[in-house]
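Methods: example folding runs. The two proteins below were folded one after another, and each record is reproduced exactly as written to the output file, sequence line first and structure-token line second.
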Amino acid sequence: MIQYLLMTLCLRAVTATPLDSRVVGGEEASPHSWPWQASLQFAYDFDPDFFQHMCAGSLVTPNWVLTAGHCIVDVPGRFAVMLGEHDLYQKGNEYLRHIKTIIIHPEFNPDVLANGNDIALLRMAEPAYSTPDVEIANLAEPGSILPNGYPCYVTGWGLTEPFGIPSATLQEANLAVVDYATCSSPYWWSGVVTPNMICAGGDGKSGGCQGDSGGPLNCMDANGVWRVHGIVSFGPGSCIVAHYPTVFTRISAYNDWISKTMEQNGGV
């Protein structure tokens, strides 16, 4: 599944890699403070009853979870999502939903993450039900673009330090948005990013990491409503490198695809 894209930028080599890991430079989130966050889990065919975390996602309707396309390409086994999760190793009020339908954006190329369209929808075999720990996400408004410096949070169960170990508990880190003009400029990600992506972070201290892929970029709007603006897609191989922010699929470029895909595959 993991594909590596070697970039030579700023006269040094930087690896853009899918972030199937954890938040670096953050802290443990208050339990269930991001109630739309899902843990995307899989079971190998040789042990179909044991599921383990591999990526993240966001609950966008009672039947659908939004994640990254690269999380589920060429991975053998069966998928499920855990909703209402906080500590992956402690039993609480979380519950599991098996995945019955996987739809990856038709223009996603797993061999070249920089082409974009790193987005997928997962239809659950049974609908989710609301609890104090489980809520449906509010998505970014169609076409909305966040300004440079806008404060957001990345959340996930990925690595808490480069080349470290995964976190058992959900982590969060505050990341400032880096506008497209800056992120696509020399000495940043240059031509690796497209307008359908969001860059956030890049201070060399905080960012997404392996295991966070598919998870949300959460940003509060002017009305005090949290909205999911991005899906963790890729970043530098060591997770935190100055001027190489975490890169997210920009949801506001895909609202129509999300809505039409759900409507054409069993409804919302």
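Second run, written to the same file directly after the first:
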Amino acid sequence: MLNGAARREEIRGLLQARPIAVAELAERYAVSESTIRRDLARLSETGGIVRTYGGALSPGGEDEQSLQERERLAGPQKAAIARHADRHAAGCRLVLLDAGTTAGALAVRLAARGGLTVATPGLTSINVLAGVPGVELVVLGGTVRPLSLGMVGPLAEAAVARLTADAVFLGADGVVAGRGICEARPEQTALKQLMIDRSRDLYVLADAGKLGRADSHWWATLDRPWTLITDAGATAAQLRPFHDDPLCTVETAAV
């Protein structure tokens, strides 16, 4: 079990990803809610977090994070998710790969796998896959979003509309059971929805900090069978709504 200082530092990092309720933190660390409230009070005194009703969030936590900021969050968890997701690429001839840091981690695995075509709007994944023997890279060109280094807009959508994929691997700002995945801008979710519609198998790659997070305003729906791949740090409370969703299969990746 973590000591108080280590627990508070980890809580501070978790709150950079999303607001978290006291009850969820208490379950995660197997301590009382009063202990968590004392932790949050100490973090609040230093300006590291902002208290909310029933929980806390990081200052400015509702602003979209840059790719560089996301790369510093949950690195081992994203690598584990990528390792696990790579198994589902076996036997695929063409996969759609989203933009983002978790997708970028998967791109590294796909580069080592070879023997398939990868279509992606993510500059991070493009840099990994360009020129790799055994990988045919399709760039879904469009307007580059500086924060995520992903391409969006009608040009990217037109490219996706011209293909079908064996599988799509999507990231998200947040994922909510029975609702879908959310992003900061409508053009992001428009492209994701089209990628979903043009793929046979659907995988959402989301570390525990993304589960239940709904603070972005734009949504792509998950209204057909899909698989959530998350890390083993996800709590039972976080996973329960996904297990209860008849369309969702939950897989956890050991870090």
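Comment on the second run: The radius of gyration is 18 Å.
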